[in-house]
Batch of 2 targets.
Target 1
Amino acid sequence: MLALHGKGVSSGIAIGRAYVLKRERVKVPEYVVPTHDIDQEIQRFLAAIEGARKELSEIRDHIPAEAPVEVASFIDTHLLILSDTMVSEAPIRDIREHQWNAEFALKTQSDRLIAVFERMEDTYLRNKKIDVAQVVERVLRNLLNPDEREDDPVPADLLGRIVVANDLAPADTVALKSKGIAAFVTNLGGPISHTAILSRSLGIPAIVAVHGATRYIDNDDQLIVDGKRGILLVGPDAVVVAEYERRAQKIERLQRELETLRTSEAVSRNGVRIQLLANIELPEDLNAVQQVLASGIGLYRTEFLFMNRQGPPDEEEQFEAYAKVVRALPGRPVTIRTLDLGADKRVDIETPVTTINPALGLRAVRLCLQEVGLFKLQLRAIIRASAFGHVRLMIPMLSNVDEIFRVVDLVREIQSQLRKEGIAFDSQMPIGGMIEVPAAAVAADLFAAHLDFLSIGTNDLIQYTLAIDRVDDAVNYLYDPLHPSVLRLIAMTIEAGRKQGIPVAMCGEMAGDARYTRLLLGLGLREFSMHPAAMLEIKKIVRESNVSDLEVRATEIMRSRDSRSLQRLVEAMNGEADSGNGEI
Ligand code: PEP
Ligand code: MG
């Protein structure tokens, strides 16, 4: 038996035979096109773009009815990339100017684009390069064999098979799901690539970044995929298979149990009510929020509205997007975070990164206070949306109390303008801030004094506290939510909110990770905002907990003198209480 490791991106266990998707990478020829053939070469390029467009439209038209909404949007992203002039027109210039053949011109342009994406600090945007590469590959295949296009090289029926591939495009993933695959494993990929996101929403166990998987695995090999732990077993013996079958059954049972919690309240055994809120990126995510009956939105990452498009959305478009979410959740809080764009999360990929250290540069509220025109437009849209429900405005990346004053001044100015124009809004709209810079956590009391609520952004708080770039693989091993310094900053922020009498939420990934729920409850956290898929598991823990007991345990944990004993105490706290959910 061979054990391979990768990044588990979608939980669950699958046992089945391998189907190895051997798609060789297309080899790109390079030659000079004679002057008199240039027009013909351009026509050949345009025909390939058209061929790729037809393929994608075909896939889009055959998306299974039960597929989640984001499936169509992933295909749309590829169609958008295909239509972008950077892909569909820039190579024409190179064909004309340098007499390059179409394949080489396209590949060169794609390399330029990918290099720009690679320089981005934001993982989400960096992963966009995968989409560009996949679209370019599709066009290249069309260029190379226009007559014998491999529309569907995969057998129609893959029921129960585990697909092993170099990489999978979202379109491939959807097509494979409809063929009944049980799981997939890829050589490449990251946890927030589209393929990973899709695997979670389609509910297929998946492991990415299993380097060499296609090299070590042959068709029909018996495989076990443990999507939670990122373990792939090749050729397991009967005893191991039986053990995993038992675990798979247990997971299924636990998942059915969790479903029954949809309508149950998030109240602890000793009667403490906990707010379980959802993080969303786009109004389309509402579906998932409704499915788990979240008590509201704790983080609406509005910058995603500004991406994958030519210019920024105008006030009206933003207003519609925000109001749609607010109207869909009557009576429930919708926390709209103002733009968290910056040198890294850029919308204009053509401008090279000039900042030396973008994570410490002009991002989020700093950028907004510099680009006041853009910011005011967003504030107006948010304030107008507040007329339709319970909007909470949230400021990201606060590092200075003065930033609060400047935002509040702008809000008041816009509110008085709207009043004059006779446009409705909620004059009581709470204004809160994210605590994600250590300076803000250390002085959380000073920030709390001027805000209506706080929300701890652990993703950035951990990055800045431990001085580890959140997207740098080389230092990822140091990423540790249980680092005593991180825990102290979290505890200080919760305490500052308590003293000031304002709510404190957490909306970083830590809030949706079941390993930390009990400790956070013990530290006094009462609002957790997370990806909707994590919510039922967290609700189960809340319902099984006695918060007073956890508070005692947390005090003990915070007294530990070193990381290792702290870790052991947290594990013990979870172990004693765990009713078996750890499997999921
Ligand atoms: C965070 O930093 O924890 C957070 C929630 O914001 P983002 O992940 O969008 O930076
Ligand atoms: Mg952040």
Target 2
Amino acid sequence: MDKKLITSILDSRKTKNSITYKDFKLNPSDLLLSWGKNKKFVIRTYGCQANVRDSEIIRGFLLKIGMVESDTFNDADFILFNTCAVRENAENHLYGELGLAKKRVRTNKDLIVAICGCVMQETKPVKFILDHFKFVKIIFGTSNIPSFYSLLEAAIKDDIVAIDLENNFDQVFEGKEDLNLSRFSKVVAYTNIMYGCDKFCSYCIVPYTRGKERSRRKEEIINEVECLKRLGYKQVTLLGQNVDSYGKDFKSSYTFASLLEDVAKTGIERIRFTTPYPSDFDEETFKVMKKYDNIMPSVHMPLQSGSNAVLKKMNRRYTKEEYLELIDKLKKHIPDVAITTDIIVGFPSEKDKDFNETLEVVKKVKFDQAFTFIYSPREDTPASKLKNASSKEEIKNRFNILKKLVDDIAEEKASELVGKTCKVLFETVSKKNKDYYSGYSEKGKLVHVRGKSDLIGSIKKVKIIESHTYSLIGELENE
Ligand code: SAH
Ligand code: SF4
Ligand code: F3S
């Protein structure tokens, strides 16, 4: 494919309206099987769980051709960057890493560097990479994962840049075979229930990089969860940019609440989901959450701002009063629910008065954790054309004030847990101290416990003995 053709594809990415379901089943060619044997691959993933899940699927492709996973570029034969475009710093990070990959090209001329993910859905960065990082051999978008084997084969055989950036935002790729079950963890798993986003919050690039909302068929989802359970997985997290829009594209009465109930009935030990959109999150779902013990009592519900004027400019479809009412309703059904959120500071129209309203909501709700972001203008989004009402210093100052408030609340809530007992699902050995194992409580709190490796994959009663802002230290209770 020459560069002219690439440019014309980039300029004409279109999506059809109706959604089709395609088979994901793919088998590697003999050439890939002999090329891949014992070669080393590295995958670097940025961004949200949607990207993590995509990386897992591609990892499955690589393992299937006999490749071995590595975590250093030094011995790599294949490096994949799965990129995120949600904020500028995520994008800049990619260019730094590409610089490091370039060093490896000097010692391994056959190294294949591939880039996929949300940044590849934007025209400018793709052109920039083609111009400045000429060693990159494969480029594909968020809806081109099924082309992976063809792209890899083309890159091995020919001296070309193998590119697939055609938007398949009208398609859902389904598959029941082992590749789709490839996961980083043997204990906890992500399962996509839908792709894309139709909300078009004015600051956000995701609807452009992930395309329109499309739900997977319920049979595929339930089948996947049942497979995970059979394989010994203890937890599934249902993924979608707005999970409560699940099934709206089918125009049927089978909603997110119906799906959640059917997933709960599979009997898998723990179920989580992310992300619900506040104005679509409904009591039906709260009732299902209350009815089934295997649905965890924790909810991540992005607030973004506590000012109605800013929410409106953000094109968020709720007011702060509605958000607070929703939390009251949720707490009526599940009184001890943990609530986490996302907040953006420095949206263009935000003034001190708006920011103070955000602080008030944070004080009222007392979030268990809040992820705070400084607004980052994204090209071609409506908000990027708005004028800034505040200076950079004012925004940085607000960010620090909010961060301190959020941390203080989290610390206070964590300290209340000392002396209490919770059930922890252990996932990994602790990163800081190899004598400790780490997992999450039902409410999603990170807990470290001294123990042995057989803890991984088990759910144990733990007494909390020490608290930090975002983690707890515990002891196993005698059972
Ligand atoms: N679908 C989810 C999350 C999407 S992105 C939702 O609707 O909540 C994750 C978070 O990144 C968002 O919740 C938002 O807080 C933040 N974010 C998105 N675009 C941003 C931007 N341009 N600048 C700063 N933060 C942004
Ligand atoms: Fe972005 Fe809004 Fe969609 Fe979330 S709901 S992905 S913030 S556009
Ligand atoms: Fe980033 Fe794309 Fe997710 S922009 S946050 S990786 S959907």
